[in-house]
Design goal:
The protein has a single domain, classed as P-loop containing nucleotide triphosphate hydrolases (Rossmann fold, 3-Layer(aba) Sandwich), CATH 3.40.50. The protein has 10 helices and 11 strands. It has helices at 47-55, 81-87, 99-102, 109-119, 126-139, 145-149, 158-170, 188-205, 216-222, 249-256, and strands spanning 4-14, 20-31, 36-40, 62-65, 68-71, 74-75, 92-95, 176-180, 208-213, 225-230, 233-239.
Length: 288
């Protein structure tokens, strides 16, 4: 049995003239326990909305429907809202892409982590909660967790802020983690450090991962399987190791837009979109 399944997910938003504008079109995918599923595609292709739908975190105004949403054998569509909320943060968590916008600038790290842990069901006294926070920060290899706990987000580097986000979301041992571009605001060296921490946390808890990214080389090296989204649809899935040999013309265009550092082409190719990609099925297009 898969850890989580999405079947036939549709999400749309009303336009100014009231006409529904589709953002996610019939998406179906699954994630196994301990698997790392990468989702790639251009901005606006529906990657983040797909991840948020699993946690019930879609923005106001979103109209959505699905044939099935399941987590660990549980029917998320049949759950009451309070039951669904109890899963968030404990069994399912999400790391957002930029700590500058995800962390509250007027609260210290400790205050935000205390609030998060309390929502995850931690009922601890002040000293025990402080020890829990320091332990969580130490687990993501923050050298001076006491100082960081008392710092405000704007006093931290991007990499440090991202580690704080990972500590908040992963320390409880969620069974499913959705990481929405967790390294997009970081340089290469810090990105590798953050991914190493994330990798360690996933291995420790046997967590299923949905890794949303624009970085195709990173996804190829970090994930087990990749789903490629275009215009709200999954147009191709394949093993991450085989992504360089993908067959769909859209995936080929994305790969061509990442030129090699050695002997790069004199001119970057232009991705030529085909309207048929929004409706046609593609041989090899399989959610699992």
């Amino acid at each position: 049995m898969s850890l989580c399944e999405i079947d036939g997910l549709d999400i749309s938003f009303a336009s100014h003239d009231g006409v529904p504008m589709p953002a996610v079109r019939g998406v179906s995918l699954s994630v196994e326990r301990g698997e790392r599923l990468g989702i790639v595609g251009e901005s606006g292709s529906g990657k983040s909305l797909t991840g948020r739908a699993l946690l019930g975190l879609l923005p106001q105004g979103a109209n959505w429907a699905a044939k099935a949403l399941r987590f660990d054998g549980q029917d998320l569509l049949a759950m009451k809202p309070n039951e669904r909320r109890r899963l968030c943060g404990t069994q399912m968590s999400m790391i957002l892409q930029d700590p500058k916008f995800s962390l509250n600038p007027v609260m210290t790290v400790a205050q935000q982590m205390r609030e998060t842990f309390a929502r995850q069901g931690e009922r601890l006294g002040r000293k025990a909660m402080r020890a829990r926070i320091v332990e969580a920060l130490s687990a993501v290899h923050i050298r001076d967790p006491e100082r960081v706990a008392d710092a405000y987000p704007q006093e931290l580097s991007g990499g440090m802020g991202q580690r704080v986000m990972i500590a908040m979301m992963v320390f409880a041992g969620p069974r499913l983690l959705i990481a929405d571009e967790p390294t997009s605001a970081l340089d290469v060296l810090v990105s590798m450090q953050v991914l190493a921490v994330l990798d360690e946390m996933i291995e420790r808890h046997d967590t299923g991962l949905v890794f949303i990214s624009h970085d195709l080389p990173l996804v190829m090296s970090f994930c087990d399987r990749v789903a490629v989204m275009y215009g709200g649809r999954i147009v191709e899935t394949c093993a991450a190791a085989d992504l360089a040999h993908a067959k769909h013309p859209y995936t080929r265009g994305l790969l061509a837009a990442n030129p090699p550092l050695v002997d790069p082409p004199a001119e970057l190719p232009t991705l030529r979109r085909d309207p048929a990609w929004l409706t046609e099925s593609f041989e090899g297009d399989s959610a699992r």
